[in-house]
Amino acid sequence: MNRLRRSVALAALSVVLGAGAPVTSALDSQYVLQRYALAIDAVPVPKNVVFTYTVSQLGPSNIEQRHTIYRSGPEVRDETLAVDGVALARKIVRFSRRDDRYAVARLAPRAVAYQILFLRSSKEGPRYDYMFEVTPLLRQSGASTDRMTIDGSRFLPRVLHFQTNGSDAKGTGEVVYAPFGQYWMPVLATVDASVNGKPARERITWGDYRFPEAFPPSTFQPPRPLPPASPQP
In whole angstroms, what is the distance from residue 37 CA to residue 31 CA? Predict the structure, then answer.
């Protein structure tokens, strides 16, 4: 028992430091889940982040846009740079307060809410990845994860596969994550669905991540409107 506690403590330390020891064979699935539980609780969240993303939708509504996002906690500055493949002469800037819906700690399934069963392992370069079937313990509405691939070096979700089942839309998709320094960030999300009986697809790609120490105060402040012009005599 003491040996097990010592190994788990060492695992927690390696997660915090962002280190993953190379392995020459696949690990026991229960040990992987122990490391995963520690890693998802310790995953760092960037205080400030800048990134670009593109979104493409085909179906009931067609969208092709490129954005730059500035985020500090819930504060968001969203700059639309291109629409339908055409760069805007003047970017569109929107301000909002919202949580990061794709944050890995938000989407990753926990054992308290899901049954997690091992499916298989696969070697990916110098590491092994581990695929698990995921079933919610309580019936869920909207999207729910049904499969997860855990990265064997960081023990964080590399891929989260999900199903969505609403009154007018049903489909499947996945969110893919990758390391950026100490952070674990989304790089790709895809959805294939049927909306009101018609096919629809969405693809989001993220990139150009930066993690500044601070933003200028004006970053999240909408510009003040100009004073009304004085009436001409």
Answer: 10
The residues pairing with 143 across neighbouring beta strands, listed in sequence order, are 164
Tens digits of per-residue pLDDT, 30-65?
999 999 999 999 999 999 999 999 999 998 788 999
Starting at the earlier edge strand, list the strands of the sheet with 157-165.
Answer: 86-97, 75-83, 63-72, 48-58, 198-210, 183-195, 169-180, 157-165, 142-151, 127-136, 114-124
Q: Other CB atoms closer than 10 Å to residue 75's CB: what's the count?
A: 16
Q: Which amino acid is at 186?
A: P
Q: Which residues of 151-160 are buried (b: 16+ CB within 10 A; e: fewer)?
A: bbbbbbbbbb
Query: pLDDT averaged over the chain?
Result: 87
Name 54's bridge partners.
66, 205
pTM summary value: 0.84
pLDDT value of residue 26? 94
All residues at 6 or more sequence positions from 168 whose CB lies less than 8 Å from its CB, including other chains? 195, 196
Q: How confident is the model at residue 84 (pLDDT cuts 50, 70, 90)?
A: very high
